Amino acid sequence: MAETTENMLAISAHAQLLAGEETPQIIRPSSTRPDNLKKGGVVSDPRLGVELPGLKLKNPVMPASGTCWYGQEIARDYDLNRLGAIVLKTTTLRPREGNGQPRLLKSGEEWMNCNGLHNVGVEQLLADKLPWLEENYPELPVIASVAGNSIEEYEEIAGKLNASKHLNALELNISCPNVKAGGQAMGVDPEVVEELTRRCVQASDKPVYVKLTPNVTDITTIALAAERGGAAGLTMINTLTGLRFDLASRKPILSNVTGGVSGPALKPICLRLIHQVRQVCDIPIIGVGGITSAEDVLEYLIAGAQAVQVGSASFTDPLALPKIISALPVLMDQYGIDNLKNVKGE
Ligand SMILES: Cc1cc2nc3c(=O)[nH]c(=O)nc-3n(C[C@H](O)[C@H](O)[C@H](O)COP(=O)(O)O)c2cc1C
């Protein structure tokens, strides 16, 4: 217990901030200080530009929902204008406290969380979080992530979010493994996914992306259901359900017993799932799972994604995203790629 828990507390001060946990002060080693990245304008290589429904991205890299909270937290580390877009923490109708502690754990190279959709709720998102982004980053494309306990709740939130002009797209989180109602339960049934997607598409002025769970037998049936429901695109994938035990107490370490595994172990699983879905679905895919480098981004594009999200990598290195974005042009030169739009599998 001691080792795991101490590890968790020591490593996760920064991670907790990005995951929306309370943390008094973040002290970074000087090697990760972002001074060099904060100064100067953002020079963007036009070869990195990608267009998706509702999203004109200067590059295909964005932080994943739940790993950058509402943007203020990562804005301490680097200029958000470097990003292709930002995906906000999943929003529910009312604020949620989430699950009890501990709910974030470093497990080898991977992370586990049972955050339980801790968030400020849609009203505060509209009143406070989105206006802050609009004021400070008017050019940055913003994706709001939505979850509800029922189809009606998803629909209601999607409708309320129409009030924001500074929102480019919605991402339906039908895949959260750490809540008892809604979330993943909805994402495993094709009929529910189709209906849920259709109702949100009707309720919203924004393009609707559907975020899939890997915790299913055949992900293609769910992807096709979202496409039939009118999804503008898919986000693949949310975390994979896992479990860790404490040796001394012989009890599960996380408060919710199980948690969602994120980080490098997800990458080959996600690449396989994207490859499978790409064979049957035509809508764009935003890939997410274990990305830590520009090489990973390229591999996701080859598998069939058009853009990517990076989550847990920022917990370990606050500058993971700007570093990945800066490394992309160098990698493109190395592989003779003239434009990222042209990267596809053989
Ligand atoms: C602490 C934490 C909180 C998360 N919260 C959300 C969330 O609110 N909504 C969501 O759709 N995904 C959430 N995720 C899942 C991530 O968006 C992403 O799908 C997953 O972590 C895999 O990417 P990664 O391996 O790059 O971290 C969360 C992940 C972590 C680690």
From TrEMBL:
Q: Which residues form the Dihydroorotate dehydrogenase catalytic domain?
A: 48-332
Q: What class of enzyme is it?
A: oxidoreductase
The active site lies at 176
The free-text note explaining how the cofactor binds reads: Binds 1 FMN per subunit.
One BP term from GO = 'de novo' pyrimidine nucleobase biosynthetic process
**GO cellular component annotations of the record:** cytoplasm
Q: Which reaction does it catalyse?
A: (S)-dihydroorotate + A = orotate + AH2
Pathway annotation from the record: Pyrimidine metabolism; UMP biosynthesis via de novo pathway
This protein's cofactor list reads: FMN
Question: Record's SUPFAM superfamilies?
Answer: FMN-linked oxidoreductases
Q: Which CDD domains match?
A: DHOD_1B_like
Annotated binding of substrate, by residue: 89, 113-117, 173, 238-239
A Pfam short name: DHO_dh
InterPro entries attached here?
Aldolase_TIM, DHO_dehydrogenase, DHOD_1B, Dihydroorotate_DH_1, Dihydroorotate_DH_1_2, Dihydroorotate_DH_cat, Dihydroorotate_DH_CS, Dihydroorotate_DH_I
Question: What are the TM regions of this chain, as residue ranges?
Answer: none
Q: Where does FMN bind?
A: 65, 89-90, 173, 211, 237, 263, 289-290, 311-312
Q: What GO MF annotations does this protein's record show?
A: dihydroorotate dehydrogenase activity
Gene3D superfamilies from the xrefs? Answer: Aldolase class I
**Cell location:** Cytoplasm
The Swiss-Prot or TrEMBL record describes its family as follows: Belongs to the dihydroorotate dehydrogenase family. Type 1 subfamily.
The role this protein plays is: Catalyzes the conversion of dihydroorotate to orotate.
Enumerate the PANTHER family for this protein.
Answer: DIHYDROOROTATE DEHYDROGENASE (FUMARATE) (PTHR48109:SF1), DIHYDROOROTATE DEHYDROGENASE (QUINONE), MITOCHONDRIAL-RELATED (PTHR48109)
Q: What is this protein called?
A: Dihydroorotate dehydrogenase
What is this protein's gene name? pyrD
